[in-house]
Design brief:
There is one protein chain. The protein has about 525 residues and is α+β, with helices and mostly antiparallel strands. About 30% of the residues lie in helices and about 25% in strands. The chain is built from 15 helices and 19 strands. The protein has a 6-stranded antiparallel barrel with strand order 14-15-16-17-18-19. α4 packs across α6 (about 120-135).
């Protein structure tokens, strides 16, 4: 096994953060521009450098040297988005591109040099193609290893095979890109990469640690790290366009089934399966329709076709929801249909019930509920998800059928008799089990009286004025209270006055066998939940 690094071709775009600001935000890169991060210059334009602006300067000092300086905040996401077309242009000529950072990408030089007529010819063609495709100026360096190729790209140099250690030896230690290490080496009298590479490897490891040992290998030209080749994302979206607008449900369902089978076959070819499907349609009048279907399993070809058919049926018929209120039917037929695999995972089979029944029943229920969603919309079928909280209303979150069942608050309460789950945060003040069977969406106003007919009040110190004896809900007849427990205080978010809640809760049993959860807040009694 050889320790010689592979020949690497690296494309470098000078001042890329400045160019990215011009591409995305329209900031003219021909003027004096500086990109700042943490109040220091991280990149600047050629015009700004001519005015004395340098990397590492503070904002005020940079503006003092160049009063007309345009300041742009550093945005790595913007740099990456703007660099994607450049990488795509390089991939049109060569395969196996690694994005080193926004503004620099590398590729093994062996392949391009063979089919493009040599290393220098390959560098010239790539630079020209990027300039014509993306209108971006770039430089290419070729050397043994990614590190040396990046330094060679600064001067557009092709280092001959085996000449990388000599090329690196004359460069200053600042070329390592570690300012703290470079400053320490200069104070120790080590000024070039050749001086640093001449030090014994064991002494470098003992003095500078693991990172120092890695940079020592780079300085000696022993960068044997293989390229992390980027795999271009596959375009999995399938689209069908129709010359004649489709306005009948049967014709749309037929077209949707063919498109669903095409999508499923394409996903299977990549070893993937769909868990979240986006359906888009465009009508002849330009109206755009979009819906996302989720599934907690894997969508088969039949399942994809069913959801496409249900969704097209809901769109084209304009089915009304509860109370006769629904979406309006499109004003024209569909001319374009697109299926987007919004969520994909590696293909894996689902495990049905042990005897085959559980999985089939679950699939039938899922199909029925999904059908209702296709007609009435995703919010028409909701399921409850338990989470953390102190009151029953806080612990329950309603999510559309098929969505991810994530609790609104961490810490799902354990079931009666079940020990607390490790790692979940405690909820002091949570109601003791059993949990109420019915949680009222809107609490009912109530009045609690004692045996003498006087209203029962709870003081700020949680002192009950008298034992509760009768309960009156709204305008109903008073009901006798046969048993009660409490109060349990809750004082939440006292630091935020707009969200603060201070209340006390009671459990009461009535003469007719009903058990209720009562809450008193600011002197007002409310019925919050009903026990079974």
């Amino acid at each position: 096994m050889t320790d010689t690094p592979a020949r690497t071709l690296l494309l470098w775009c000078p001042d890329w953060p400045v160019l990215a600001a011009e591409i995305v935000d329209g900031v003219p890169a021909t003027g004096p521009v500086a990109v700042l991060h943490a109040n220091r210059v991280v990149a600047c334009s050629e015009r700004a450098r001519a005015e004395g602006v340098r990397r590492g300067l503070r904002k005020r000092e940079a503006q003092g040297r160049c009063p007309q300086l345009t300041v742009v905040e550093y945005d790595p996401g913007r740099d990456a988005r703007a660099f994607e077309p450049v990488v795509a242009a390089v991939e049109e000529l060569v395969a196996g591109v690694e994005v080193v950072r926004p503004g620099a990408c590398a590729v093994a030089a062996r392949g391009p040099s063979r089919y493009l007529g040599g290393e220098e010819a390959a560098a010239e063609q790539i630079i020209e193609h990027v300039a014509q495709t993306c209108a971006v100026e770039a430089q290419v360096g070729i050397a043994d290893g990614v590190f040396a190729a990046g330094l060679a790209a600064r001067t557009g140099r092709v280092v001959p095979p085996g000449g990388t250690p000599t090329f690196l030896a004359a460069l200053p230690v600042e070329a390592l890109g570690r300012p703290a290490l470079a400053d320490l080496l200069r104070r120790l009298g080590v000024r070039t990469l050749g001086d640093f590479a001449a030090l014994p490897a064991g002494d470098v490891l003992a003095r500078f640690g693991f990172d120092g040992a890695l940079t020592h290998r780079l300085a000696a030209g022993r960068d044997h790290r293989p390229l992390a080749v980027r795999r271009p994302p596959a375009d999995l979206t399938v689209t069908a366009e129709y010359d004649e607008p489709v306005d009948r449900v049967d014709a749309a369902a037929f077209a949707g089934r063919a498109l669903a089978e095409q999508l499923h076959d394409q996903l299977a070819g990549h070893g993937l399966a769909c868990t979240r499907l986006g359906i888009e349609a465009v009508t002849a009048h330009g109206q755009e329709l979009h819906r996302v279907w989720r599934h907690d399993g894997l969508l088969t070809a039949a399942a994809i076709a069913d959801r496409v058919r249900w969704q097209l049926d809901g769109w084209l018929t304009g089915s009304s929801g509860r109370g006769g209120v629904g979406r309006a039917r499109p004003t024209a037929g569909i001319i374009r249909l697109r299926l987007i695999p919004d969520g994909v995972i590696a293909q894996a089979g689902l495990q049905p019930g042990l005897w085959g029944e559980t999985g089939e029943e679950r699939e039938r229920a899922h199909r029925a509920l999904s059908r209702v969603q296709g007609i009435l919309g995703p919010e028409a079928v909701l399921t409850a998800v338990l989470g953390g909280g102190r009151s029953p209303a806080d612990q329950v979150r309603l999510v559309p059928w098929g969505d991810e069942r994530l609790p609104a608050r961490p810490g799902e309460p354990p079931r009666p008799g079940e020990p607390a789950r490790p790692g979940e945060p405690p909820w002091p003040g949570r109601l003791p089990p059993p949990a109420p069977a019915v949680v009222l969406p809107t609490p009912l106003a109530a009045v609690v009286h004692d045996a003498d007919g006087a209203p029962v009040v709870v003081s700020a110190r949680l002192q009950v004025s008298a034992p509760p004896a009768r309960l009156t809900i709204d305008a109903a007849r008073p009901m006798e209270i046969t048993g009660w427990a409490g109060p349990w205080p809750v004082d939440e978010r006292w630091w935020a006055p707009a969200e603060a809640h201070r209340r006390a809760r009671f459990q009461v049993g009535l003469a007719n066998g009903t058990a209720l959860l009562l809450v008193v807040e600011a002197g007002q009694w409310l019925v919050e939940a009903i026990y079974d």
